[in-house]
Design goal:
alpha/beta, Rossmann fold, UDP-N-acetylmuramoyl-L-alanine:D-glutamate ligase, 3 domains, 22 strands, globular
């Protein structure tokens, strides 16, 4: 929503907004843009009445501004619909979708086009990403060309439109990274998730292309009835885009990509993790298939600077490295911890998790969460965010997770909140430790509180 506000402002609209409590990095982005945000929600925020209200999917009936909007019949729409009407209609739409990796992959794809535009200015992309892409310093851009690159979110659109947002984006070309059960608050099961992605695939025209991960039976099923060309990427021998010789050296991932069995390029990426190499290969494959030469693709990936809150180093104090990662699912946690093992070999790894996403707050993935967290040497688990909102039979019980980890020989502790975690960890952390803070929200300021506590420990007054 913050990125959309920026795009609309660039197009000449006057934009204001409301939130219960805005937090970085998007609150900083809005402040820098000069977009005023009223906090918290209140009826007075709609005085004078706006011409149009764009309702985010976090809001439902009962919200004071939603009720005022309906009572006064102020015109309203959804984020996804206004994106289509203002930015996608009449343009070429490149969509990156999947339950994991879409923010990073979208950022990579946008950066590839940006580098390619140095020689072909017509390729300069407009884009909308669900995170701040470090190469751009923003999550959005608006250009004069026909190209629009967007992250295709499978979450629902608004309280009045319960379909996925990506159904409004009508892709001319599509990347599909992963398909797993996620968003347990709106999808009943894996079958429902797959149905959503099958419907997205069904929107790609015959002239279009789909670049799809080869290591998932769910992805295979979702693209099986596509009416356009489908190119697979991954490690399978018969894939159109195959990764080989993947290695991590001196902070850089390096690998070869074979295209239709022939070596196409040697790629490098200043990021760790097999999942990031896969994301980069997907972006490279889509761009190459759309006519981008290998040279700017190789250059773009070698200079890619990641996305804020994706393996972002927030502080290094007394040899202790603090990492911020936007964890929302056990698979994402697993891949993050695997990447950190590769990036910091031999160092003690801490996982600090706030179960905050609508999936992690539920017990549907309790076993998978235990397995993922076991990749760390030390685990600190916070209480479930707003646990009272989750019915008791569905709610994750962090004590069960911690107990299982302890039985497996792990140093695991359950602490109620960020302050308790900071108090517990500060005296225990030692030089060489790597701390991965995993949350898809603000985590009560722990990203600032833990470094501040370590600084006080290092320089007591």
């Amino acid at each position: 929503m913050a990125s959309l506000a920026g795009l609309l402002q660039l197009k000449g609209h006057r934009v204001t907004g409301s939130d219960q409590a805005a937090y970085p990095p998007m609150s900083n982005l809005l402040r820098d843009l000069g977009v005023p945000i009223a906090e918290p929600f209140a009826e007075s925020n709609l005085e004078p009445a706006p011409d149009l209200i764009i309702v985010g999917n976090a809001l439902s009936r009962g919200n004071v501004e939603v009720e005022t909007m309906l009572d006064r019949r102020i015109p309203f729409t959804s984020m996804a619909r206004i994106v289509h009407e203002e930015f996608i209609a009449g343009h070429e739409s490149l969509v990156v979708a999947g339950t994991h990796g879409k923010t990073t992959t979208t950022s990579m794809l946008a950066w590839i086009y940006e580098v390619a535009a140095r020689k072909r200015p017509e390729l300069a992309p407009s884009f909308l990403i669900g995170g701040v892409a470090e190469n751009f310093g923003t999550s959005f851009h608006l250009r004069d060309g026909r190209l629009f690159i967007i992250e295709g979110d499978e979450y629902d659109t608004a309280f009045f439109d319960k379909g996925p947002k990506f159904m409004h984006y009508f892709p001319d070309a599509l990347i599909l990274t992963h398909v797993e059960f996620d968003h347990a608050d709106i999808y009943a099961d894996l079958a429902a998730v797959k149905t959503a992605f099958k419907r997205l695939v069904n929107l790609v025209p015959r002239r279009g292309r789909i670049v799809a991960f080869d290591g998932s039976e769910n992805v295979t099923e979702c693209v099986s009835r596509a009416m356009c060309a489908v190119e697979r990427y991954g490690f399978e021998a018969n894939s159109q885009w195959r990764l080989t010789d993947l290695r991590f050296e001196g902070g850089i991932s390096c690998w070869r990509v074979a295209r239709a069995g022939e070596i196409w390029a040697e790629l490098s990426l200043p990021m760790a993790g097999e999942h990031n190499a896969l994301n980069a290969t997907a972006a490279a494959a889509l761009a190459a298939g759309q006519g981008i030469p290998a040279e700017p693709i190789v250059e773009a990936l070698a200079t890619f600077r990641s996305v804020r809150r994706r393996l972002e180093v927030r502080a290094e104090i007394d040899g202790i490295t603090i990492i911020d990662d936007f964890a929302h699912h056990p698979t994402a946690i697993r891949e993050t911890l695997r990447a950190l093992r590769a990036a910091y070999p031999g160092r003690s790894l801490w996982a600090v998790l706030e179960p905050r996403s609508n999936t992690l707050r539920r017990n549907v993935f309790e076993r998978e969460l235990i397995d993922s967290l076991s990749l760390a040497d030390h685990i600190a688990l916070a209480g479930v965010f707003h646990s009272e909102q989750i019915p008791e039979p569905q709610r994750l019980h962090p004590d069960n997770v911690v107990s299982a980890l302890q039985k497996a020989g792990k140093d695991a502790v359950l602490l109620p909140n960020a302050d308790a975690i900071v108090t517990n960890l500060t005296p225990r952390l030692a030089s060489g430790d790597v701390v991965a803070i995993l949350s898809n929200g603000g985590f009560d300021g722990i990203y600032e509180k833990l470094p501040a506590a370590l600084e006080r420990r290092s320089h007591p007054s």
